[in-house]
Design a protein that fits this description.
This protein has 311 residues and is of the alpha/beta class. The chain has a single domain, classed as Ribonuclease Z/Hydroxyacylglutathione hydrolase-like (Metallo-beta-lactamase, Chain A), CATH 3.60.15. The protein has 11 helices and 13 strands. Strands 7-8-9-10-11-12-13 form a 7-stranded mixed sheet, with helices on one face. A hairpin with a 2-residue loop joins strand 2 and strand 3. The longest helix has 11 residues. It is globular. The protein starts with a helix and ends in a 7-residue tail after the last strand. The N terminus is likely disordered. The protein binds zinc ion (ZN) (2 copies). The site of one zinc ion has 5 residues, from loops.
């Protein structure tokens, strides 16, 4: 699809999504809904200055985690979010930068006092991943139940596998909608929209420029979108043996900062937050480089994500 077709399709799809904003659950908290970026580096390789992809939305003191990159539990603690307050976990897709700590988050939340149910959503094989993780951790779980008098973690976790776009869940705090984005070879890969009474937040997950995402994000207050600077990818892959395959993979499965700006403009979002940054820590790719690329196409508020930033 060329750029013009992409934008035309996006505009055509847009109006129907307005309905998503109506009738959202009412807030009980005066503080309002919070969005905190927990990890903002793209890719599975651990980085010194940025964590792996994860974010948390806090509504009425209930925490909803989107993606579980390595270190997500510690980042929640660093952000001051009690692990026992987790009520939902949403996995966009099963690349390890997004799911490496899925089970670990649940296990560590339990050691931190989690005693209420947690529902989790994501593409298959989320159920198998959950069961396998519990199998792997049975020695610890069983020992702590016996020694420390804890309730069993396993019945507290309810995984739900998603295969298609549309309504995901609605509870007393928020309503969640998903769409399928374009991130080969991961099929399906999801983006999520969270409609809360006081704001709407969309998390892109990993994707090429996606007209389905434009439709999902239509009119949202905040869009957290993955972004890369294509010119820096050569430096990024310079010292790896699979450089040419890695470069091709990165460029064909992701969205440039320019394209993220175009998506945000087409969706008419209020604020665009760039995250899942590739490169994550190239000193020549300054905040100004990200903003300058994005500004060519997006005229709203722009934020370059950093770990523990509250938006
Ligand atoms: Zn990723
Ligand atoms: Zn990915």
């Amino acid at each position: 699809m060329d750029r013009r077709t992409f934008l035309a399709t996006a505009t055509a799809l847009a109006p129907g999504l307005r309905a998503v904003a109506h009738g959202a659950p009412q807030p009980a908290s005066r503080a309002g809904t919070r969005l905190i970026l927990l990890g903002t580096a793209g890719g599975p390789r651990p980085r010194a200055t940025r964590g792996s992809p994860a974010q948390v939305i806090i509504a009425n003191e209930a925490a909803y985690v989107v993606d579980c990159g390595n270190g997500v539990a510690r980042q929640l603690v660093a952000a001051g979010v009690p692990l026992r307050s987790i009520r939902g976990v949403f996995v966009t897709h099963h690349h390890s930068d997004h799911n490496a700590d899925y089970g670990t988050l649940l296990l560590l939340a339990w050691t931190a006092g989690l005693a209420t149910p947690v529902h989790t959503w994501g593409p298959p094989p989320l159920k198998r991943n959950t069961e396998t993780f519990f199998e792997m951790s049975a020695t610890d779980i069983d020992a702590r139940m016996r020694d420390e008098g804890r309730p069993d973690l396993r019945p507290l976790v309810c995984p739900h596998e998603l295969n298609s776009a549309g309504h995901v869940v609605e509870d007393a705090n928020l309503r969640v909608t998903a769409t399928i984005v374009d991130h080969p070879p991961m099929k399906p890969a999801f983006a999520y929209r969270f409609d809360v009474a006081d704001r709407s937040i969309v998390i892109s997950g990993d994707t090429r420029p996606s007209d389905a995402l434009v439709a999902l994000a239509r009119g949202a207050d905040v869009l957290v979108h993955e972004a890369l600077i294509a010119a820096a990818v050569d430096r990024l892959v310079a010292n790896v043996p699979n450089a040419s395959d890695l470069k091709r993979s990165i460029l064909s499965h992701h969205t440039t900062a320019e394209e993220a700006g175009r998506v945000a403009q087409a969706a008419a979002v209020g604020t665009l937050v760039l995250s899942h940054l590739i490169p994550a820590e190239d000193p020549s790719v300054t905040e100004e480089v990200w903003l300058e690329a994005t500004r060519r196409h997006f005229h709203g508020r722009m934020i370059v994500g950093r770990d523990l930033l509250e938006v």
